[in-house]
Amino acid sequence: MKSLFSSVLLVSVLFMNSFSEVQGKKWKGEGTTQNLESIVIGRCYDYIRIVNPAVGEKNCSAIWEAFKNAFINKDPCNILPDDYELFINLSFHTIPPNKSLFWENNQLLVNSFADRGRRYMSLADTLFGFVADYLNWCGQANSAGLDYESCPTTEECENNAVESFWRKASATYAQHSSGVIHVLLNGSVVGGAYPEPGFFADYEIPNLQKDKVSQIVIWVVDDIEGPDIESCGTHTVKILENRLKTLGYDVTCTDNYKSVVFLLCLDYPDDSKCTLSSSAPATQRGPISSDRGGSWNKLMFVSFVGFLFRFALLY
């Protein structure tokens, strides 16, 4: 009887715990990233000390406070982009001309290609993008705490803390991009390489400063093992090209830009798309080598004749 009672009690406790967990998760999205404060402040110092010390001194504690105060103690579905204004002002720095790299549907590839600002400076390579990349966060109305259980998704409410942050960051990034602008799109994505709606379409293109932009270069790159769905001049890429040209920009487009394809091939060295052909046929290598040998022999002969001539003059 005691054994039966214990079993019933255990099942009841487990049920109540599961029910409480479900009840505690108000939203469908993941909760705030654990140790968020430490991560944001740590990334800030990593950026100004190691990644890009050229930005100069920044107050990382103040940057965290401005970031947190943008969404804390507020309805998690009523956070506006301008709530991050102070954070942007404290973390902002110049974006080098000709280094801006916009993208859609290929975040990991862009991170690798940009190489933390060494080749290009994507939004995630700026200080204000770097500290928040891949993180999740939200607060609670009338509470100074963070919600670690769940956060609203964009489907549940557009004005959530993360969505509004990236809208503000994207607009700021576009406003301060200059020179040649680069756009990297995924030609293997079902649904369009240039999505509408999308961050590039809705928040970045409208905030580009035409007087600061000399050219927009589009790269449409297929996944190595993916289908070739879109290319320059077709489907959504054509829509993008036409939109930019209508706005008065000088636009060029290249399919499968070699530098990006070479980077993708690091993970697929045996794929047929990654086979490197020799720039010269094998039959030409012999004569080239012989010519070098012949040139060396001629040089030795001329040197020897010169030595004999000087010897004759002395004696």
Automatic annotation (TrEMBL):
GO molecular function per UniProt: NAD+ nucleosidase activity, cyclic ADP-ribose generating; phosphorus-oxygen lyase activity; transferase activity
**InterPro entries (UniProt xref):** ADP-ribosyl_cyclase
| Alphabetical list of Pfam families matching this protein | Rib_hydrolayse (PF02267)
Its EC number(s): 3.2.2.6
Keywords assigned: Disulfide bond, Hydrolase, NAD, Signal, Transferase
GO BP terms, alphabetized: positive regulation of B cell proliferation
The superkingdom of the source organism is: Eukaryota
Q: What is this protein called?
A: ADP-ribosyl cyclase/cyclic ADP-ribose hydrolase
